[in-house]
Design goal:
By secondary structure, the chain is mainly α. The protein contains 7 helices and no strands. Helix 1 runs antiparallel to helix 3.
Length: 140
């Protein structure tokens, strides 16, 4: 049961990375605008948008497959926890009661907390992740 649930967690968080990366790759201008608005322009350089988008797609695929887990799981956590930290005001005040205004609040960001924590759970329970490909390969 633990292995199946960890696989489901890997599949869903990895798929999220693939979807986000694909959206960025398909619309680099939108990726730049979002970076400017929510991430202080941290990844707004045109030269970074597509490589980061394709890197995010690859990262998501490796998470789903469970390959190179020692490196890939912390990278996923860095992306997902870092993304949540960048929008901390929206997470701390999803209803716009004290940090945000009614116009700037966005409750759709709140699930980012769950995704960030899921990436940490994947790391914490890695030993039970028996359906990861690198674990299967190491048995041979």
């Amino acid at each position: 049961m633990k292995s199946a649930l960890l696989f489901a967690l890997r599949a869903s968080t990895g798929a999220l990375l693939i979807v986000w990366g694909t959206l960025r790759a398909m619309s680099p201008d939108t990726a730049v605008r979002l970076s400017e608005k929510y991430y202080s322009g941290l990844i707004s350089a045109d030269a970074l948008v597509l490589p980061l988008a394709y890197g995010q797609i690859a990262l998501g695929a490796l998470v789903i497959l469970g390959l190179f887990r020692t490196v890939i799981y912390p990278l996923q956590a860095l992306v997902l926890v870092g993304g949540a930290l960048a929008i901390w005001k929206y997470l701390a005040d999803p209803l716009g009661l004290y940090l945000m205004t009614p116009e700037t609040k966005n409750t759709l960001f709140f699930p980012s907390t769950t995704v960030a924590i899921a990436s940490l759970i994947i790391i914490a329970f890695r030993e039970y992740d028996r359906l990861a490909l690198d674990r299967l390969f190491s048995r041979r």
